[in-house]
Design goal:
single chain, 282 residues, alpha/beta, eight-stranded parallel β-sheet, 38% helix
Length: 282
């Protein structure tokens, strides 16, 4: 197996599955900023000190940044940028949209001021038609930010709703998601975030066919899957290799990276994750 030993690691005599250096355009790992776990800049600095070369970006979830002083949000951004990682908003534009276009413009302006690079356009809680989504993508891009629409098949996804509540709401057609994703990419979106609810979260059985349809319809490099659960991100790596883009909790970086590089795994993945390095890097 041809490998490139990662960039600055101990025990580098052990071969690894190929992982490119940052900035990566595939095999991206995005981690969650404070939300379910409340932590500050010292903790984030620790995460980057330990695993910074494997963290491509951080994402604030649920508008949690709106509960912190502006200079503190900026401090998180500075730490991420110092380690070559981007900063993304999570789902919150659904809230801002309720207050009109001026509020959206103000949101994008302040997002740049606090160091955000990416704006997630989440559609789980709102009935946003495709033309409206495309206008938002255009507005974000024109503001000098990257647009990351979050699309899913579960109506009411994106929060802490239970399985029974979501089952009552019903699911959307996977073909609609793929069409919206294609059109958003054509309109300038950088990547499409795929909501886990309805696929691997809050379902009785995983909808693996939906994940396959998304990858086949949009391309592995154009999508990122929410996978903040060990069995979920293992399943994605096992089925689609270590170049799949994944969003996980900040506590899971080394577990995921060990799987990506083939230095550890579980029963069905141990020793089986292979990715030869390009000849120039082997």
């Amino acid at each position: 197996m041809s490998t490139a030993v990662p960039h600055d690691v101990s025990f580098n005599f052990v071969p690894r599955a190929y992982r490119p250096a940052k900035p990566r355009t595939f095999g991206i790992t995005e981690i969650r900023a404070p939300y379910y776990d409340t932590f500050g800049t010292r903790h984030l600095q620790d995460v980057f000190d330990v695993a910074g070369q494997w963290v491509d970006g951080i994402k604030w979830a649920g508008g949690s940044f709106a509960l912190l002083p502006q200079d503190q949000v900026r401090a998180f951004s500075d730490i991420a940028h110092e380690h070559g990682s981007y900063v993304s908003s999570g789902g919150w534009i659904e809230t801002v949209l309720r207050y009109g276009d001026d509020a959206v413009d103000h949101y994008l302006k302040e997002a740049k001021e606090v160091g955000f690079d990416v704006i997630e356009i989440s559609t789980g809680f709102i009935m946003l038609n495709t033309s409206g989504l495309l206008r938002l993508v255009d507005k974000v891009v024109k503001a000098g930010l990257k647009a990351k629409p979050e699309l899913g098949i579960q109506i009411g996804s994106g929060g802490d709703s239970g399985e029974a509540e979501l089952a009552v709401e019903g699911a959307k057609d996977i073909g609609d998601l793929i069409d919206r994703g294609r059109r958003a990419l054509d309109a300038g979106a950088s990547i499409i975030m795929i909501e886990s609810e309805g696929i691997t979260e809050n379902v009785r059985e995983w909808n693996t066919g939906a994940a396959a349809s998304v990858i086949n319809g949009l391309g592995l490099e154009n999508v990122m899957f929410e996978a903040a659960d060990g069995p979920v991100f293992e399943w994605y790596v096992k089925n689609y290799g270590n170049e799949v883009n994944l969003f996980v909790d900040h506590s899971q970086v080394l577990q995921l990276e060990g799987l990506r590089q083939n230095i550890w795994g579980n029963t069905s993945t141990w020793g089986r994750v292979i990715n030869p390095a390009p000849s120039a890097e082997s």
